[in-house]
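Apologies for my clumsy wording, but are you able to produce some protein sequence, whichever is easiest, and the tokens describing how it folds?
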Amino acid sequence: MFILYYIILMVCFFCSEEILPKDTLNTGSKQLNSTEIITHLDGNNLNIKGSFHNDADAVKVIGYKLTVSKTGISGTSRTSQSGEHTVESGGTIVVSETTVSINPEDEIEIKLTITDKGEIITEKKITCKGKDFNQN
């Protein structure tokens, strides 16, 4: 578990990470829903997981969209996954997983958006170079 936190810390340190507005779910009381983007570099393959934690007092049916953009010498590629999940109160789930091949000079942008009834409730974005991901 320590290694996982270290990986997240290192990605956050070397990459630009942005938590976009609406990082709370408005239900009359402060209930924070959080997203995490977890990465692991295996050779030239960057494994990406997007997770969501539901701090609300009720079960939520959430929508998600995970988008990965990569720009390098061979051009630009964009991968996107979306769907819905049911998340128990206090529960954390991995909403999406993908793997992309990267080179050190590539520009990478990873964005995870979570919606509730079509409205964005939390969003996270990481932007960095391929060389900023540590081999583990």
Summary: Helices lie at 2-14. The two ends are 14 Å apart (CA to CA). The CA atoms of residues 39 and 48 lie 5 Å apart. The beta strands are 16-19, 24-26, 30-32, 34-42, 45-53, 60-72, 75-87, 92-101, 107-116, 119-129.
